[in-house]
Amino acid sequence: MELYRLGIREAIELISKKEISPLELLESVFQRIDSVEERIKAYVTIERESAFNRARGLENKPMEGKLHGIPVAVKDNICTRGVRTTCSSRILENFIPPYESTVTSRLTVQGYILAGKTNLDEFAMGSSTENSAFFITRNPWDTERVPGGSSGGSAAAVAADECIAALGSDTGGSIRQPAAFCGIVGLKPTYGRVSRYGLVAFASSLDQIGPLTKCVEDAAILLNIIGGHDHHDSTSVAMSVPDFTSALGMDIKGLKIGIPREYFIEGVDKEVENGVRDAIKRLESLGAVPLEISLPHTEYAVATYYILATSEASSNLARYDGVKYGLRMDGENLIEMYMNTRHHGFGAEVKRRIILGTYALSSGYYEAYYRKAQQVRTLIRQDFENAFKEVDVIITPTTPTPAFRIGEKTRDPLQMYLSDIFTIPVNLAGVPAISIPCGFSGEGLPIGLQIIGRHFDEENILKVAYAYEQDTEWHKRRPVL
User: Fold this and answer.
1) Read out DSSP for 362-378?
2) Which of 453, 469, 441 is nearest to 141 (CA)?
3) What digits encode the pLDDT tens for the residues 375-404?
4) In which element (H, E) is residue 305 found?
5) What is the pTM of this model?
6) Active site residues
7) Most exposed: 116, 149, 221, 379, by fewest CB within 10 Å?
């Protein structure tokens, strides 16, 4: 078996037994990158020299931590000190952070190797990675299709075995949707479970960092490392982090799974629906008890999200003015310099969202749009709270369709926004959710199953995901490249 195909647990086991070395593992991963990266375009920056220096430094050392010598890719909106962090935007094309994010600091303590920074939709605004200012990332299962977004580079890198695991960020589905499209595992933790310090902000009340991995156990391993309170982030919750791997393998007999009727509606691809319903039957055969439930405000989620997220983006992206850091374009005066910088620095989708958010926050419209959206967000959160009085987890499709073709939705932003219709409510409610593979379409494209849990109950969703994964073979399939 090629070493680049290994997951975290398998690789660590072999390294700890000295059957392979960090250098051998890294060499295999970089051989894979050299072989397929030109076709996939997962990375904005590849950290070859520093990665090999790090591997050599770990070569003859005793095990440093839970990721000793494991090559991990990091989404390029997570700050890495001394390593370019672009957010796939011209405005930050040459930005090198002077500090390290909390999540990558925690990975470093555990002995990881940074393989590189992965491509994304500019400032994480998109569902296909077509909005990157640099290039389009392609889906390893079909290079004429998108890998999803905004963490498309991270998902594609994991699916194509160009790293052992990756980190992404999820504001409205940006970990789970690309995980579904690429046939891997993607976990969005509860809002506040993982520090956002060093994550370049898109929508601060929605953003959350999480793992993209080859199996459920690896997601649990990474969450163990990156989770926990951080005094640098006032939104991170001071709550102890359990060992998420301890929940894996536990019996799910009698566990109640909610099936929301609003998620099985007209417009959902028939193969996706069949795949998810088959997964529900499989969970039932393992002892879980399915119950039909209602999340009645689901239909308002997309509209609510695109008011709140764009409003926060308008505020957060005001800092890119050409003065302190990033791109600076000259002008006749200060206002012209601002205008030229932002005109040349931001892409079309980012500009669209800034305009939407600025309008929603403007005098005379704030009450009608932003305030009303916040009220609806509360109703959506209450829907989940009421549902979890009856059930332990909620099962839905991750996406309405398998991966779509490159260029298929770029001319219709609304159709693109609807790609996240099943993931957005989770972010609005702040609850955790995971996407795992549950089948393939007739064209050989992965189908994702979403498992949603109560606030800070990642253990339960990991337990259910692991039980399903171990009873099926979907996660073992790899794209042929």
Assistant:
1) STTTTIIIIIHHHHHHH
2) 441
3) 999 999 999 999 999 999 999 999 999 999
4) helix 301-316
5) 0.97
6) 75, 150, 174
7) 379
